[in-house]
Prior knowledge:
Elements: H1 7-17, E1 20-24, E2 27-28, E3 32-34, E4 38-42, E5 45-48, E6 53-56, E7 61-64, E8 71-74, E9 79-83, E10 90-94, E11 112-116, E12 128-129, E13 136-137, E14 147-155, E15 159-162, E16 165-167, E17 170-173, E18 180-187, E19 194-197, E20 203-209, E21 216-219, E22 225-232, E23 246-248, E24 264-271, E25 289-292, E26 298-305, E27 311-314, H2 316-323, E28 328-330, E29 333-335, E30 342-344, H3 353-358, E31 363-365, E32 373-375, E33 383-386, E34 437-443, E35 446-448, E36 454-463, E37 468-471, E38 476-479, E39 486-489, E40 494-498, E41 505-509, E42 527-531, E43 543-544, E44 551-552, E45 562-570, E46 574-577, E47 580-582, E48 585-588, E49 595-602, E50 609-612, E51 618-624
Parallel strand pairs: 1-4, 2-5, 3-6, 4-7, 5-8, 6-9, 7-10, 8-11, 9-14, 10-14, 11-17, 14-18, 17-19, 18-20, 19-21, 20-22, 21-23, 22-24, 23-25, 24-26, 25-27, 26-28, 26-29, 27-30, 29-31, 34-36, 35-37, 36-38, 36-39, 37-40, 38-41, 39-42, 40-45, 41-45, 42-48, 45-49, 48-50, 49-51
Antiparallel strand pairs: 12-13, 15-16, 32-33, 43-44, 46-47
Amino acid sequence: MKKAIHLLAVLLLIATSIQAQVAVSGDITTNTTWTASNTYLLKGFVRVKSGATLTVEPGTLIFGENSSQGTLIVLPGGKINAQGTAEKPIVFTSEYAKYGASRKPTYGDWGGIIILGNAPINVAGGTAKIEGPGDFYGGTNPDDNSGVFSYVRIEYPGIAFSANNEINGLTMGGVGRGTKLDHVQVSYSGDDSFEWFGGNVNAKYLVAYRGWDDDFDTDFGYNGKLQYLYAIRDPQIADVSKSNGFESDNDGGGSANTPITAPTWYNVTMVGPWANSGATAASNYGKGMHLRRNSQNKIYNTLIVGWKDGLYLDGTATIGAAANNNMMFSNSMIAGAFGKVVDTTRSNGTFNPTTWFEGSANKSSALSTDAKLLAPFALTNPKLLPLSDSPLLSGGSTPPNDGFFDVAATHIGAFGSVDWTEGWVDYNAFGYTTEFTPISGDITGVDTLDAKKAYLIKGFVRVKAGASLVIPAGTKIFGENSSQGSLIVLPGGVIKAEGTETNPVVFTSEFNRPGAARTPTYGDWGGIIILGNAPINVAGGTAKIEGPGDFYGGTNPDDSSGVLRYVRIEYPGIAFSANNEINGLTMGGVGRKTVIEHVQVSYSGDDSFEWFGGNVNAKYLIAYRGW
């Protein structure tokens, strides 16, 4: 309870409160570590050269510069060690997703990630130039190791330089099976989300979210193993080249060059743009799977749902491979294909695609709803688990027991009883919060917030006696600056803000978002005030709290104001006048039945925590860089 504010001190503290951004350009020639305590900006083509390893800590945030088409390229012999966690994924994103950006991020804001290795490809001579930057890849070592890429999100990448010359979200050229690749989400890619040019790297738990062109594309002899892949399309977004779920070629000319493109796929869910036959979608959409040019994919336990045309076999060689069982589509389901479930470019003699499809333990249905998933077409909050009576829970084949595949995944599609996207995948529209749901006035009933929305506290918002405010884990609430937004729980009111260790509830400044007019700082909004009926030592047993002036205090030491658990409070704290301030977390007459634990107050413009009487107990409190 004090305050003499000096402008110079404010400026210095603002400067040190923001993560340092490190600009990265040119070649990485020695072992280098990017830390989560900094952010990074990729400027132009940044290459990890042969013999060097780039290590990226969990939780690190890397931006791609738009004007220079910032791109990270791991060359053959170079390595990337990007091992995130479910709680702290590594995020590569647009520079327009950072604080104070001039516009929202969008498709193709930067280049993407390119990993190149020494594994075999089917191009004459054994090496080729990768699309985009033109670096060489390919070799003779199927066990080549380009490092680790795990729990990583790639947002708004994908640049088309010219026809058939693009940088995808994640491009892999000649990447060997010594490389570890799992839990990767590519969102809003301006070209393909994932593309493999030869090589034989194996991968699991891949998510292609609202891409522009194909979700998964394989070429030039790719022969890896893939399991647990999921893609969802935006009905209004498709490429002029025809956007497909899968696209697969042996090469551009459909040659017989070896190795033949022949990956093995298990447990895939491809959600297309048509929730039903009456839905509208961009005219440039192609097929759920377009298999062509002598490719020989082996596809099992796969769901294609919401695509007008399901499976398309294109070309004599591809059809011949299917007829000779060198190309497989088995133990799978196509639902909602109101055009063609399976089709070919020609009859190819006696080959009947429907007979071939039905003879391989496959299922089909005219309605997408017959797949019986919870909510597969909800773009910003899809729910992919099958219902208890879903046909996807039976009829799948047992994956090979080879040390890579999960042999227990005998269900059809990417999801059985577990949603493996929870915790690390981001379905927020454009990834970062930009729109608010306002909260103002009094809360007089039971009000439950939605973790998928962002809220703006406008002025003094009071939870009245007898009312409850329920805030689920992961909810983000912003405080408005101009109105000194504050949340006040009055005596008899209850707050239930129950975050988790991996998904806390966050109260923060309205300037702590992309596109804000400035960076956040101390005292951007009011704070959190909890008032109860527990004893205080003021004459008469009640008093007015500093700031808004509401009464608190009473005679009930066991009073409960609810729960505040796993909560962060950032940039609060307003001084109205000397000895009259709102702190980060103010507690007045709060009783011991209230739960306060795992609470962090950061950059408070007044005290971080202040107790005015009461006897509430608390554990695991952090006061970070308070004023």
